[in-house]
Amino acid sequence: MATSRRLGRLGRGVFDRNDRRKQAYRYTSAGTDALPLVDLSLGSTDLPPPAVALEAIEDALRTPESSSYCLQAATRPFREAVAAWSKRRFGVSVDPDREVLLLVGSQEGTAHLPLAVLDPGDAALILDPSYPSHRGGLVLADARIERLQLRQEQCWRPDFNALSNSKWDQLRMMVFGFPHNPTAQVGEQSWLAEAMERGIRHQVVVAHDNPYVDLALEGDAPALLLCPGWREWGIEFFSFSKGWCLGGFRLAFAIGAEPLITALRELKGVVDFNQSLALQRGAIAALSDAPDWPQQILEVYRERRDRTLAALGALGWHVPCPSMALYLWLPVPTWAKQQGFNDETLAADLLDRTGIALTPGSGFGSGGDDWLRLALVQPVEDLEAAVARMGPWWHAHI
Ligand SMILES: Cc1ncc(COP(=O)(O)O)c(C=O)c1O
User: Which of 7, 19, 169, 173 could form a disulfide with 124 if both were Cys (CB 3.0 to 4.6 A apart)?
Assistant: First the structure.
């Protein structure tokens, strides 16, 4: 059956091929002596969510309201909890009725926003590399995509001057995200300040995807809410998936300029009936009773980062030290390039020979070519064991 050309443009490419390889490995290794799959290719944590959140969900599950459709008005307690969190976390007061929106995951928000603010053919800017829903949402909205390349030589700092003034004038939207997946760099507040300043000057919507706001290992994570001007042109996306380890529950929210929140809410009105009230209760408990959960898990990620980096270094794989939790961003080694590997073929070879799955960087855009992402989503001993498993593979190649 013919599907839309838009869907074709979306493409599945690298990630799809990597997923198929993982499935094939699982299938062929089951019941054999082959090493079991160690999946370090997804940012889906093994760490537990706060018990208060799970208890609140459990308590609310059997109430009839939790099985009913949830209209916007019923999300007010959640929006009030978000407003209280914003005041506590950033010192920023927000209007729970007009500046806060519940989302079914922040990915849903960044993917839907372009449909709410862009017309077909409008120009929008993303970082390259960047999280796939940033590009994906723009493709679904038939936007014209411009890219701002992030480069290691520039410490992954966006070079705003890489775009001419006339290009800036043509833009209608830009999507940023620091702390940054996949490069694992926290980034700086001044980068967002410049994005916001350009947004106001050139009348460009600034969407900032910030699910890792509480997961900086070095320095402070930037936030768009701290930039004067967000009430005019900005919207920021936050999530319960990373800091509160509730990824499977699909809970997130946006705080932003009233016209953007209204537009996204209207768009979502034809798509969903919000998240279940029971899950919202869990989210409220996380924000109100376990606001420090993300800080508590930082030490776990720090140990995982440091010991995995040390193990890779002992192997000869020298990986830059990331400033945020959850990921390592590994350069394709020189020997691999000399042997004709790129990030995708190297990830495939590693998986076939060791059962370890990493993410090919090119799946995040051409700026990720020749990089691999490793997610620190298993206990530290298992991460070290995975690197030890890489040893024979590494030495057989060099
Ligand atoms: C930058 C970024 N945005 C959004 C998401 C998805 O978050 P959520 O589970 O809230 O949809 C991820 C997940 O890895 C991410 O890295």
Answer: 173
